[in-house]
Amino acid sequence: MRNKAAVRHLVDLLMTVVLILLMAYFLTEQEIHEWLGAGMLVLFIVHHLLNYRWIKALERGKYTPYRVVQTALVLLVFLCMLGSMLSGIWMSRYVFDFLPTQGQMGLARTAHLLCAYWSFLLLSAHLGLHWGIVLGAARKAAGGKPPVPARTAVLRALACGISAYGVYAFFKHHIADYLFLRSRFVFFDYEQPPALYILDLLAMMGLWMALSYFLGRALQRHTGQTAMQKEANS
Q1: Which domain holds residue 173?
Q2: Which residue has the higher pLDDT, 26 or 230?
Q3: How many structural domains are present in the chain?
Q4: Taking the model in full, what pTM does it have?
């Protein structure tokens, strides 16, 4: 079980790294971008195979508000990733050029743009919803010591700083225009240092991770309080 969990975490980490590289499309060649996309496709399949039990259990158990949000988020991520991959395969000029895909390139490009940016946002939120597991593992690796208030305050301040910069980067790069197709072409500032663009992407990812993490905690706390109230009234 430990080995399987380690593999699962490794796959998730690789998907995160590849996602950032895919979003930094302007910093790579077309062929490299396609190979990264093909790698993401493989990781995407492996990820779902490793989480088969969770998928199989969807029909069982009670759906708390947290579980509803979690399941809806997974479904949306799946649909956006699928749309991004299928449209990418359709437009492929290198990796999948052997496939007989012709015509409708404009539609495929628009679908790829839309699905790619929503995948970035939703996958970031998906990571944030499970960030508690990462924090728990880190606490366990540190010997299971209780949280130090000063350290917790510093980490929260850091999260707020990253999120604030993420908001700035979100508007700086006009991400909402791509999410809602107000623009069908991505504009990139080639004078911006590549490292700064990567940091902008990481900050935006941190923003959505933080929002979903605290939303998840609020939903779990609400579910716990509701259960306690029901028990007290019974």
Answers
A1: 2-52+59-233
A2: 26
A3: 1
A4: 0.89
Report d(CA 210, CA 165) in Å as an integer. 12
Half-sphere exposure of 97 (CA within 13 A, CB side): 7
How much is the average pLDDT of 107-131? 95
- Structure tokens of 105? 């390139």
pLDDT band at 67; cut points 50, 70, 90: very high
Q: Is 64 exposed, middle or buried (0-12, 13-18, 19+ CB in 10 A)?
A: middle
DSSP assignment of the chain, as one string?
Answer: -HHHHHHHHHHHHHHHHHHHHHHTGGGS-HHHHHHHHHHHHHHHHHHHHHTHHHHHGGGSS---HHHHHHHHHHHHHHHHHHHHHHHHHHH-SSTTTTS---S-HHHHHHHHHHHHHHHHHHHHHHHHHTHHHHHHHHHHHTTSPPPPHHHHHHHHHHHHHHHHHHHHHHHHTTHHHHHTTS-SS----TTS-HHHHHHHHHHHHHHHHHHHHHHHHHHHHHHHHHHHHHHHH-
